[in-house]
């Protein structure tokens, strides 16, 4: 199974989505996330991704304040430039998540639209 690549317009839709089964996940390090990120994104650094995705729902709620993604929930993953998000996307698929998308433009592209505004 391969990861679907999505663009800026699709990420904007996800960012503004009220759907509780849609998760926007930033896999950059915490310091990078704190310096700027897409609103509504959860920060799960790549080095912690597998362990975090294996948490129980109760543990997930205690950390993130919302339900853990179900295996068929939409998961959009991004990083700074697309490399780490690709690795995390493959990891999610390996963990049997079925609706995984990679925002390959990642933070570099997203932040360029912020600068242009």
Which structural traits does this protein have?
alpha/beta; 117 residues; Rhodanese domain-containing protein; Rhodanese-like_dom; thiosulfate-cyanide sulfurtransferase activity; 5 strands; globular
- What structural category do the secondary elements indicate? alpha/beta
- What letter string, H or E per element, gives the SSE order? EHEHEHHEHEH
Our measurement of the CA-to-CA distance between the termini, rounded to an integer number of angstroms, reads 37 Å
| Strand composition percent | 15-25%
For the sheet with most strands, the description reads: 5 strands, parallel
Question: What is the typical, i.e. mean, pLDDT?
Answer: 93
How many β-strand stretches?
Answer: 5
Q: Please count the helical segments.
A: 6
What's the SSE blueprint?
Blueprint: E1 4-6, H1 8-15, E2 22-26, H2 30-35, E3 42-43, H3 49-53, H4 57-64, E4 74-78, H5 83-94, E5 99-103, H6 106-116
Parallel strand pairs: 1-5, 2-3, 2-4, 4-5
Organism: Umbelopsis vinacea
InterPro entries: Rhodanese-like_dom, Rhodanese-like_dom_sf
Pfam family, one: Rhodanese
Question: Would you kindly provide a written description of the structure presented here, covering whatever features stand out?
Answer:
It comes from Umbelopsis vinacea. One of its GO terms (molecular function) is thiosulfate-cyanide sulfurtransferase activity. This is Rhodanese domain-containing protein. Strands 1-5-4-2-3 form a 5-stranded parallel sheet. The chain contains 6 helices and 5 strands. Helix 5 links the parallel strand 4 (74-78) and strand 5 (99-103). The model has no long low-confidence stretch (mean pLDDT 93). The chain is 43% helix and 17% strand. It has 117 residues and is an alpha/beta fold. The longest helix has 12 residues, at 83-94. The chain has helices at 8-15, 30-35, 49-53, 57-64, 83-94, 106-116, and strands at 4-6, 22-26, 42-43, 74-78, 99-103.
């Amino acid at each position: 199974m391969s990861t679907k690549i999505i663009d800026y317009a699709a990420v904007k839709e996800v960012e503004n989505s009220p759907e509780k089964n849609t998760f926007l996940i930033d896999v950059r390090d915490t310091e990078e996330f704190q310096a700027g990120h897409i609103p509504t994104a959860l920060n799960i650094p790549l080095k912690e991704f597998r362990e975090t995705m294996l948490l129980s729902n109760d543990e997930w709620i205690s950390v993130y304040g919302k339900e853990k993604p179900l295996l068929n929930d939409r998961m959009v993953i991004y990083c700074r430039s697309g490399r780490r998000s690709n690795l995390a996307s493959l990891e999610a698929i390996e963990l049997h998540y079925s609706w995984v998308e990679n925002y390959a433009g990642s933070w570099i592209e997203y932040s360029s639209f912020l600068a242009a505004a």
